[in-house]
Structures are given as structure tokens and as C-alpha cells.
């Protein structure tokens, strides 16, 4: 008896294809495989929230959607001081973090698959070329963009300019940037694929009640369910992937909502728990045969944790902006996303519009601050414009997810610890980006600006990276682990390097590609 | 100030009205907004008191903190003007007491309809049809910018000249190098002596 919430229920003793996690990677994989006639079991740690459940209130929504299970942090990043138990801001619910993502869908650039070759040796950085290139992924980018309804491509019209964008784009023009626009964003400017046009309600981060924004919840899950081949089990937290005497994955152990342990037999396991839970699960699955954790002969599981550069610049004007009206993110400046070492760092970054309500603004604009300097930032709320910077951070072996055996979750399992130090390249790029953002706002008359430190990470990458050689990483070019032939990783953990682009589009493209490979391998009985 | 708790037993503690008024003043001085009326400050102080009732350690910290404020004020903290009160708060900034007050205030004062209205934020919008017809693009002090990329132009992915300088990895064919801890594969730098 399983806890499937769909019409389809697969026996626990039947060797199933088990997907752990239902976000951008796992949800896409479930949809692709079921649409090819392959039944799957999806274990999702969070509940099945519907669009009607979402609330237009930042803290209430946060407590409803966010992954709040205890985690710990270490390292010199400010998160370890300001939000020591919240290294990442992710969603724990069916659809995963796609339900609160902003929607930006830039592609990787060709050289961003080959950073080791193009950037050269960067001291302290664990750079490695991906085993695939843009030519491998291009057709899947097309498919992902069409599935997600990315604006500006494949005939999808751009979103209109909202207030925040008007300030951002005018500033961009004045400082001489050319490549700015309102997208690409996976939010509908007009009705598309059964989803309505945006009503510009401004609550992307709180789930999108209007269903205009693409998410796994609005598109892939219902379609997978319709095939009758999806056994979806919410509130099922995977705790171990077990293996047989040959070293092949043979089952997944998971806890149901009441804390009871279950075993789902598996012929193939795909991990898509995001870059903290995925390595945690591999590390929790260590055995005498895999003493350092499952699929960890390289020692790279949990390492090279990347979170993107990030930072926010606020501009304060003498006239109203009302940035909170309209899509939270609907503006991109790409000019700085190029690789130009003359700026003093490798890689590039995007600037993207962002808005927070007063509740989150107070919590994140300057964590720990108080007094008149702090309150003046909020007094300027109506006249504020905001942009987020997102750029490539360097993979470092010492930035890693480990098990913290001194802290336990409610089930007695060691919690993940996330250690992060900025690389000098990250610091140089962030400084450059802050200054560039300030110039944009100053160009249109900002009376003041403020730099906000990175938020708890929304882009979590690299902890089970893809590599040509087994000694350099965890998975091969298909996302199949080098060590365990029927174990795949299907989320952003596989990113060899992070690129400047927001990662969701690439995660979806990789998952579509991986689904084809898995289907083919199953058909030819090579798995 | 008399002892902030009404009863000597810490476990049965209920704060005196004087303590509550002091706390309201603390929140107002630490988070001053001329535009915000008294209501939200009072609600925030009451929230702090509720939290303190639920956690023994907060209660201890709060009691100690309120007493300290009066000691540092050389009398009644409530008698100090804004500037002097702010100075006293800066002196307790690093205490458990102030950290508790600050955190609780940041989380609650700004999650309040009245504060939102004062700051010019309109709150929930979906039930009113979003802002599509209610001013999502009503900013009129700047020209309407273009929303599409310039036609027929491509952003150069790599700056001109960036690849003119050969890097060690490029010379050695990139992936050939030991990748986990890449070394300086083509460095021929000798020690320089004079």
C-alpha cells in the first residue's frame, strides 16, 4: 500500500524507476518518461500544494513552501552569520523550487561548458570542462524553452515593461548597455500552452496563483498524471539508496509523513533533490562497498558546491517607482555576461530586476542592521528600484556539503552542513557588479543606492558534478553515476561549472536529454 | 524602575505595564519611522512579550535587558530623548536582550498592514486582479524603454582579445590536465635573483 496521490499505484516490491524529488529535474524526467510509456514512482519530501493554497504574503508563504528542515553552515560567507540555519531558500513541495522561481531562462554560452580551457588555470578553483558542449544541449534548450514558454524566443512575445523595468532599462541605456530586454522569462505575456497571460500580481516568489508562470506543478505534473503511469508520493523523504551484491542500486528507503520507514524496490534510481539533499542522500547511503558514500569513489560528492555570485543593488529616487507592482523579475541586462578578463575576473554576470515586499526587505536588505540608517532604507520603499546580480562563481573543492553528525533532524538523521568561502574571483566580480548596478541607477537620478549581500542560495549547484573521467566527478555526460550503473543524478548537482545563467532552463534541458537516454537504455535493455 | 515582572517568581512572570511601555519605546527608538503610528509598535512589543512568555531564556534576557536600560539611562529609559535613547541602545546592541528584540521586531513590525500602508506597499494583489489594470506600468517620469533586444545584433560571448593571451590550460589542451587540482602545466618560471 503506497501513498500515491494519483490514480496509479506501483507495488513497493515491484522494481520500479524511482525518481527522488519533483522539481525542475525530477519533475521533467517524470513527465518525459511517462509520456514515453514508462511508469515511474516519484518520491517528494514535501506536500502537494495547489495554486489555490498559495498566499500573497511573504512570511506566510515562506512558512508554507520553504524547505525549513534544519541545516547548518560554516565558512566565511555572510549566510553563516546572518542565517546560520538557512543556507538555501528552496521549496519543499511537489514541483520543488520551480514553484517559487522567478522565471529567468537564459542559456549557457558555448564557452561556459569549457571554462577550464577558456579561463585557464584559476588558482584555488576546481575548474573542469563539461563532457558536453552547447552543440549537445542546443536541441534540448529549444525543447525546454518551448515547454516553459520562454519569452523572446520561438515566437513568444516579450513581457511588457513594468515600473521596475522602466528604471532599470533607462539606466542601462544611459550607461551604454545595449543588450537589455524584459526577458527571456518563462512567464506568459499572452496565453500559451493552456496557461493565461500574466496579471502582473507581483508574487512570483510566493507561487503564482494565476498559473501564468511555468512550473513543474502547472505543466509537467498534471500531464504525467494523465498518462496513468505516475505514482506520486508526496511527504515521502528518501533516506537511503541501497544496493545489491553487484553494486547496483536496488531500492530506496523513505519515510512517510508519520515517520514510518518504507522500502521501494528499484531497477533504476534518479536523484533530483537539489544540490544539498542529493549529496546528503549519497553520503547517507555509504556501505562497506561504498565507504565514502554511494557513487563517491572520486571523493567529489558534496564538493564544488556553487551558489552563483548574487547580490542586490537598490536605487532610491525622489519619485515613486512602486517596483512591487508587476512581475517580480522581468528585466535582464546581458552586456556584462560576457567573458572579459580585462575586468579583472573570469566569467560574467547578468543583472535582473527584482522586488521584495517590506517584510522581506526588512529581513534581507541589511541583515542585523537597525537604527535610523536601517529604517531610512525602508522609508524609501515606494521610491525604490531593485536589481539582482547573478554570475558565475568558481567551483572550489572546499566549498561542500557534508553530514553534520552533531545535529539531527526530526528523524534522527544527520543534517547537511553547507560550507562556503568566496573565491577571490567571486569577490572581484561582485564588486564589479555592485558598481555597475549603482551606475545604472545613478544614470537615471538615484539619490542613493544600497548593496545587499547574497540571500540564502536559490541556485545550488555542482555537488555531484559531471566529468569525462570517473576520478574528476560523480556522473558521466548523461548524468549516470560513474560508480553505479543504474543510478542517475537529474538536478543542478551535475553542473560541472555554474555559468552566469539562471540554472533552471539548463536543468530542464538536461533532464529532457537524460530521459531520452534512459528510455533508450531501457528499450535496448542496457540497464 | 520597579522589577519589570509583576511577581517575584520568574516562572509565573507577567510584565508590568511600565515594562511594556519601556519596550514600546525601545522598538520605536531602534526602528524609527515617522510615518508609522503607535499601533504597530505596540503590537510588536506585545509580540516580543508573548515570545518571552514562551521561552524561559528570552524571559530572563528581557528582564535583565529592561533593567539594564534604566541603569544605563541613569534613571528611567523612557525619559531620554531620541538621541540619548539611541546611544543607550547602541551600548546594549551586542546583548542577548537586544538581539532578541531586534530579530523579533524585524520579523513582525514589517509584517503589518498598517506599516505597509505607511511605507506605500499595497499587500496582496491577486484577489484584486493583480496590477495589470492597476498601475504596474504607471511610472511616468522616464520614457518608455524598449522591451526587446536590439534587432540583428548579437552580444559577443567572449570579449575581443580575451583569447589572444594563451592560458596554460589552452596550451595543454585543457582537459588533458589533472583537473581536480589543476597545476601550472606550462609554467617555466625560474627563481629570480639579483
From TrEMBL, chain A:
Flavoprotein found in the keyword field: yes
Domain annotation Glucose-methanol-choline oxidoreductase C-terminal: ranges: 395-511
Superkingdom field: Bacteria
InterPro entries: FAD/NAD-bd_sf, GMC_OxRdtase_N, GMC_OxRtase_C
Xref: Pfam families: GMC_oxred_C, GMC_oxred_N
Region (Disordered): 449-469
SUPFAM superfamilies reported for this sequence: FAD-linked reductases, C-terminal domain, FAD/NAD(P)-binding domain
Glucose-methanol-choline oxidoreductase N-terminal domain: residues covered: 93-309
Coiled coil: none
Molecular function per GO: flavin adenine dinucleotide binding; oxidoreductase activity, acting on CH-OH group of donors
The UniProt record lists the keyword Cell cycle: no
Record's keyword terms, sorted: FAD, Flavoprotein, Oxidoreductase
Family in the record: Belongs to the GMC oxidoreductase family.
Name of the protein: GMC family oxidoreductase
Organism (species): Nesterenkonia sedimenti
TrEMBL record, chain B:
Biased composition (Polar residues): 177-187
Region (Disordered) residue spans: 145-194
Origin superkingdom: Bacteria
Name of the protein: Gluconate 2-dehydrogenase subunit 3 family protein
Native organism: Nesterenkonia sedimenti
